[in-house]
Each structure stands twice: as structure tokens, then as C-alpha cells.
Amino acid sequence: MSERDVMRGRRLTTEQILGSGFSTPFDAPMIPPFPFSFRNVEVLTLAWRTRGECVDALLPPELSRTSDVVMAHIYKMNDTEWLGPYTESNFMVGCRYDRTGEAGSYSPYLFLSSDVGVAHGREVHGQPKKLGKPTLVTDGDAWVGRVERNGIEIITGTLAYKQSRSVIAKMADYYDFALNFNLKAIDHIDGRPAIRQLTARRLGELTVHECWSGPCTVELRPNVQAPVHRLPVVEMLDGFYWRGDFTLVQGRVLHDYLDRAS
User: Which of 46, 61, 220, 252 counts the most CB atoms within 10 A of its CB?
Assistant: First the structure.
């Protein structure tokens, strides 16, 4: 509903409430409808080996570990429809959906600077997003990525500045990061579970303009509100700096935990 409709005294209808993509406040909606695009995104991807049992401890039922490698993406979103410029981080582990064998990644932690991004991620995808302060900068001859929450820098990562050309397909040697699984959990107002789902989404229209890789460094710091330290660094692997465009499209429900017959 537009501001003009509100000023003319037009009331919100049940049909509008039931429509796809509806969001509140209805005269200034917060959640973007699908699809919406991200342009000229800069990403520092840091990969490290952790302990397998640490990955297992964070996976919900129906997902199984496929790797002991963690990938942390620190994004500088330069031009995003609805959200505007902001920064984001996504910590991923490799897994598969047991019922079909479909393999991708699961996100136990995400931190970003946009309230719209937090709301959309939690309400629609079921991503465990929280507000934070990711940054991605160049300092001399290195990329430096940081994520801060509660005044604590929970991760610091570095990668040499554009020394070795690469292709984003090399990230798939670890696992398919573009296919992302999430645990969506929303309650009714009376406390009963309303949604308990495994969801899946794949990045659409991914175009990579440049990609560079090389050895990376990763340092984690404990924080009870951002416990990425639960995926400790056993071995530092490769990092990637890449720049591209992609579109966020509708996903799907893989599994409904409330459906006892499933």
C-alpha cells in the first residue's frame, strides 16, 4: 500500500495481508519482495580447517557434515536494492541434507550492519542474523576483513592484495557455498512453535567480475553473543577476494519439523 493510498483513507485489505511479499509497517514495508539484486559486491572469503566434532555440534537434525572446513564471507555490499550500501558476514560449514543427499552449506552465524537485512534474513530465510560491524578494507598490500560485535572483534582475516588470479569455482573444492541451508524458527504469540523448517536458497544470476586467491590468516576471539570461536582454527587455508553481482530469489522448504509424518 502506498503513502497516497493511506492519505486517501484507503484501508489495508485482507487480500493485501495474504499477498506474497507483504511486510509491516504496511505503509512503509521493511522486507523486500523477491527478487532483489546486489551489484558490485566485494567479498573476502576466508577458509580454515576446524575440528569435525565442532561442526557436528552446530548442525540441526536432518543435516550431516561433509567437510571440516569453515568459510567466512565478509561482504561489502556497495549497491543493494531496498537495503542500500551495507556490510555483512556469513560463517558457513559444509553439509548435506540426509533425505536427498543434496549438498551445500549451513550458516550457524551471520552478522551485518543493516536492520533491514537482519529482519529479512530472520523472517524469510530463517538465517540467524544479528547486528554487527563487518568491515573490508585494503591496508597497504593486504585485504583486511573484520567483524565486530559488542565492541569485540570476533574475527580478523587477511589476504595479500591481488597477487594470484583465480576463479570462484575453486571455492567449490571445499563445498557449494551458493546453496545455503538454514534453520527457520518462529513462534506463535502464545509461545507455541509456528515454524520449524529447514530452508534452502541458491544465489541467482551470479556474475563474477574478478577473483583473486592465496594463503589467508584467520584470528578468532570469544564472544558469548557471537560465538564463532566454537569453530576454532586448526589450519589456515586459502582466502579469496572476489567482486560480482547476484540476485536473491525465492527459496524452498526442505523439511518441516512440525510435520510429524515427514
Answer: 46
